[in-house]
């Protein structure tokens, strides 16, 4: 049995540095996916210690306001999995409403820096 921590990184839009080497330096086995659908498939196979995802507010969804609603619903099945979210400050009000209904372990506003990520993940 491996004692290495695991991290699922969901990079849909990006807009921040590639943190893969940083995650690995911090001792995480990292899996990278590029869509929420792929993330849900990955979660069925293995539950990581941390999921890192971007919050994208979108008004064109019929039944939700962001890309993370479905992921958050799936993560309810795995309460031990921590959700770290990167979010745009201009959507903070919408993100706070999301947080009222969904469990978010840590949140970092853009621009996301290496130091912010290290500070969050070292507290795990």
Which properties best describe this structure?
124 residues; alpha/beta; Rossmann fold; 5-stranded parallel beta sheet; 5 helices; globular; Response regulator
Describe the structure.
The chain has one domain (5-122): Rossmann fold (3-Layer(aba) Sandwich). It is 34% helix and 22% strand. It has 5 helices and 5 strands, in the order βαβαβαβαβα. Helix 2 (36-45) runs parallel beside helix 3.
List the helices and strands and how they pair.
Blueprint: E1 5-10, H1 20-25, E2 28-33, H2 36-45, E3 50-54, H3 69-75, E4 82-87, H4 92-101, E5 106-109, H5 114-122
Parallel strand pairs: 1-2, 1-3, 3-4, 4-5
Helix pairs in contact: 2-3
Organism: Thiolapillus brandeum
Protein name: Response regulator
Radius of gyration: 14 Å
Global outline = globular
Poorly predicted sequence stretches spanning 5 or more consecutive residues: none
Strand content: 15-25%
- CATH third-tier fold name: Rossmann fold
- Neighbour order of strands in the largest sheet: 2-1-3-4-5
CATH second-level architecture: 3-Layer(aba) Sandwich
Helix fraction bin: 25-40%
CATH class descriptor: Alpha Beta
User: How confident is the prediction overall: mean pLDDT?
Assistant: 91
- C-alpha termini separation: 20 Å
Helix vs. strand class: alpha/beta
Q: What is the chain-wise order of helices and strands?
A: EHEHEHEHEH
Q: How many extended strands?
A: 5
Q: Tell me about the biggest sheet?
A: 5 strands, parallel
Q: By CATH's scheme, which homologous superfamily applies?
A: Response regulator
**Count of separate structural domains:** 1
DSSP summary: helix tally: 5
Protein name: Response regulator
């Amino acid at each position: 049995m491996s004692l290495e921590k695991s991290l699922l990184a969901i990079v849909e839009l990006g807009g921040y540095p590639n943190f893969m080497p940083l995650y690995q330096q911090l001792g995480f086995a990292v899996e990278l996916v590029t869509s929420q659908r792929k993330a849900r498939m990955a979660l069925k196979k293995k539950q990581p210690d941390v999921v890192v995802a971007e919050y994208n507010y979108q008004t064109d969804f019929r039944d939700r306001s962001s890309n993370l609603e479905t992921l958050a619903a799936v993560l309810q099945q795995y309460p031990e999995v921590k959700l770290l979210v990167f979010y745009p400050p201009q959507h903070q009000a919408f993100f706070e409403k999301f947080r009222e209904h969904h469990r978010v372990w840590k949140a970092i506003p853009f621009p996301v820096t290496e130091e912010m990520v290290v500070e969050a993940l070292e507290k795990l």
